[in-house]
Predict the structure of Methyltransferase domain-containing protein.
Amino acid sequence: MDDICVFMVAMVGGGGEAYDVISLPQIRAAVSSSPRALDVGCGAGVSTEILWKMGFKDIDAIDWSADAWKRFVVEGGKENERVRFTETDDESFVETGVAGPYDVIVYNFAVNESKARGMLKYLNAANPNARLLAPVNAQTDYWQKQSYLLLDRSGSVTWSASEVGAWSVQFQPDVTQSTCSGYWCAPFNGFKKKPTVR
């Protein structure tokens, strides 16, 4: 998957260390006897691969577009039967009945903190180290600055950072919301709410 890493570093302006956040000791501690992970907004599968290498061997990966996954995972020969990809948005995925509980949720699609906190109920209650990692807006629906939050099942922030290495999380609109405006939002980016899959 080196080609994926090169692609993603180019996408974030050379700041590949942003993906190092997934390898935090607090997240590594969540690896249990049969660790499960949910990767929301998995894109080309970089975060999914990091979770796999950390020991999460049962992963649900979702993204509203399958283009990057298809190019770098499917066509790149990196598919794995223990990693299930679903082309859907986060809200539709929840409506279908989430297959949790998960020991770790990486929520690259949360955008607003309240949305991230809504996923805490899918963390594994039997695992005291279960965590949710999400880059979220510093202000609700204000897309200029984000911070990483690492939350435990009770919603307590166990770690946070506004910058990781040389990489600053910026300008991440929630394409599922009507408040999203600009060329990165529907209808310009091709986002369409996915039908509920049962």
Observations:
- Residues 15 and 57 are 27 Å apart (CA to CA).
- Strands lie at 36-40, 58-63, 83-87, 104-107, 131-139, 142-152, 157-161, 163-164, 167-168.
